[in-house]
Structure formats: structure tokens, C-alpha cells
Design a protein that fits this description.
Elements lengths: L8 H8 L1 H18 L1 H7 L7 H19 L9 E5 L5 H8 L3 E6 L2 H10 L6 E5 L10 E6 L8 H12 L2 E8 L4 H10 L16 H11 L3 E11 L2 E10 L1
Parallel strand pairs: 1-2, 1-4, 2-3, 4-5
Antiparallel strand pairs: 5-7, 6-7
Helix pairs in contact: 1-7, 7-9
Length: 242
């Protein structure tokens, strides 16, 4: 008996692009769990870091504040998915504003750090796994901060579409394509090999916006902002689903 045709964005993506997506996700798991866990733990703490990494830390702090500023000040009664939560800073801030948070990451090591750092009384469900797992349920808001920057544009659109099927808003970041950013990425190869992240995929903002409009007609871009701080450059978009 023939299987039913896929009916959701998530099902279609798993049929057509999941092998590539899974391969990228596997490389990220290896990087964060066994290659550069300490570097990222230091980066997301108050530990002393190099001048270059200090600019990255400052940029990430600004980006987290930007994404959270697009959500209601009072998140009581709302369910939020921190998709690619890392060491948990955004999840903690959202929970402190009243949200019921599910925080998921591919790295078990970073989730362990997040659990240790988070206040025990906050309603955060820490998970290791895939941010597209349908078993996570539905959400009022999804935030994917710097967790899609290693994927090509087609996958970003598919992931945003799949997340949007079970959330009211999806905020995410991508690496905006520009000559300056390309130069910075090349310079970043000067970092010790063990501290390099998997390749970032610069994406044209115009092309990404056009792709969302064409392929996700029920998603409206409500907010957009770029954050540039030294070696950190990332662009955030917030889409509302209808």
C-alpha cells in the first residue's frame, strides 16, 4: 500500500532535504561536543577571552537582547522553544519573563552546562536533540539564534517553514552575505584549528526575504535587524505565521 503524500512543511523537508540537513547537524554535534566545548563555555560566560572573542561575545549579547525585545515583555502563559539553545542564556531570560521554555540543542555537553548554570526554580525543559522534532509540540514563539547560520539558504527557509507550522512567531538569525563578512570568515581561519566552527554559510538578505515570500506565503516578516560587533555579524528576522 502506498504511503500518504507529505502534507506539512516538516514532512516535505524530511522527504527532500533531510539527508543534507542531518549531515550538517552531525558536524555541529561533533564540533560542540568534542572539539570546542571549552571555547564556547568561556565565550558565553564572564571568563577572560581574547579581543576578537570579546567582540563576538558582545555581539551575541546584543543579538539576544534584540530577539527578546520582539517578544512581549510579559511571557506568562506562553510556550517558547529556544531552538539551538547552547549554554542557555536566552532560555533563562525568557523563563525569567514568565515563559514556559523548551530549550534544545544538538550538543549534550552544552546542555549539561546550561542545566548547571540555570536557576533551579525556572520552568525550563532542557533537551538534547533536533529542533525540528515534532514531539516537542506547539509553541507561541520559537527563537533560533545563530543555530541556522551553518545551513544553506534553502534549508533555512525549510526549517523556518517547518517551525512556523507549530508556532505563532519564529525569530531566527542568518549570516548576511557581504564582502566584509567574507573577509572576516577567511581571517577566522587563523584561529587554532580545534576552535574553528563548521563553515558559516553567508546568505543574501534580499534573496532570503524573497525566498520566504515565495515559498512561505503565510509567513510575514515583522522585524529585521543586523548586529555587527567586530568579528560577529548576524542578521535577525522575525516572521509571523498566519
Amino acid at each position: 500500500m502506498a504511503s500518504a503524500a507529505p502534507t506539512t512543511q516538516a514532512e516535505r523537508f524530511r522527504d527532500t532535504g533531510s539527508a543534507r540537513y542531518d549531515a550538517y547537524r552531525g558536524r555541529l554535534t561533533t564540533y560542540f561536543d568534542s572539539t570546542a566545548k571549552k571555547a564556547w563555555v568561556d565565550l558565553t560566560s564572564d571568563a577572560p577571552v581574547s579581543g576578537i572573542r570579546a567582540t563576538v561575545r558582545a555581539g551575541r549579547d546584543r543579538m539576544r537582547a534584540t530577539l527578546l525585545s520582539w517578544l512581549p515583555a510579559d511571557l506568562s502563559g506562553r510556550r517558547l522553544l529556544d531552538a539551538g539553545c547552547g549554554t542557555g542564556s536566552l532560555a533563562v531570560e525568557a523563563a525569567e519573563r514568565g515563559a514556559e521554555v523548551v530549550a534544545i540543542d544538538v550538543s549534550e555537553g552544552l546542555i549539561d552546562v546550561a542545566r548547571e548554570r540555570a536557576p533551579e526554580d525556572l520552568p525550563i525543559d532542557w533537551r538534547v536533540g533536533d529542533l525540528l522534532d515534532p514531539a516537542l509540540g506547539r509553541f507561541d514563539h520559537v527563537i533560533a539564534m545563530d543555530s541556522l547560520i551553518h545551513y544553506p539558504m534553502a534549508d533555512i527557509v525549510d526549517v523556518v517553514g517547518a517551525l512556523g507550522e507549530r508556532a505563532g512567531t519564529v525569530g531566527f538569525t542568518f549570516a548576511p552575505s557581504s564582502p566584509l563578512l567574507q573577509t572576516m570568515h577567511m581571517a577566522g581561519k587563523l584561529f587554532p584549528r580545534g576552535n574553528r566552527s563548521p563553515a558559516i554559510k553567508p546568505v543574501s538578505e534580499t534573496r532570503l526575504r524573497n525566498a520566504i515570500a515565495a515559498r512561505l506565503p503565510d509567513h510575514a516578516i515583522a522585524h529585521g535587524e543586523r548586529v555587527a560587533s567586530g568579528f560577529y555579524t548576524s542578521h535577525a528576522l522575525m516572521v509571523e505565521t498566519g
